[in-house]
Amino acid sequence: MRDDLLSKLLSSKKYREVCPDTVRRIWNECAGKYKKPGDVDRAAREALHGITAAFMTGEEALQLARDMQAWHCDKTDIGLERMLGRHASTRERLPLSETDALYGRLFGITGRPRSVLDLACGINPLYLGARGIHAVGVDISGGAVEAVNRFGQVYGMPVRAVCADLLSPGAIPGGAYDVALLFKLLPLLERQRAASAMDVMRAVNAKWLVASFPTRTLGGRNVGMAAHYAGWMEGHIPPGRSLAGCFETDNELFYILKQDIG
Questions:
Q1: Which residues contact 82 (CB under 8 A, 6 or more apart)?
Q2: Which of 4, 56, 63, 232 has its CA 20 to 30 A from that of 256?
Q3: Whole-model pTM?
């Protein structure tokens, strides 16, 4: 009975684009809390809904595919901004002038990277690739991963992505990177599994880690989130790294951690 319900969940229209490892992990976590298969199914669906609420809709994905084709023809910043507006995580850093200013500030500390690892990337590698930066993304959204890979394979941009669950073994791509981006990721990991944020930071092989945190609620209220996350981050700097810089934008707090040498 439980196996049948899990198979239905994996193939359901609503969740079939979610990384299968994520679905199985959440199912198993719920199965450890509830005895009745129906209760497990309801709890798993509720948890998945909370995780996938920020995914692109089907219409947004179709529009993004059209936007990419149009951008490939003219390479304008207007077209790039239109693409980035199709996903919640990149949309909140628009207009494009603000996105450029943000990365200018980050790369002013790290130096312009030759390679970037973008964890929970959404479609952010589209921005990086359009700016000539090689990027590898990881996300649980099959739609976002497909869009990034289309941008790389069809339009020749230096980006690719893998669909993987960062709370499952082997999810972080191998290799060494100049910069790893963990935008608003660490609180999400901690809410799902205690100490997992530190595990992910320690597993990343990059000269620089850039972690960000939200500073306002979804309703735009300032309720002390910046101070809370600053305290958490400064108490959880991984071994072998040190603080190189931090700054705050209108709705996001950024920490830049460098890899210690020697």
A1: 67, 70, 71
A2: 56
A3: 0.95
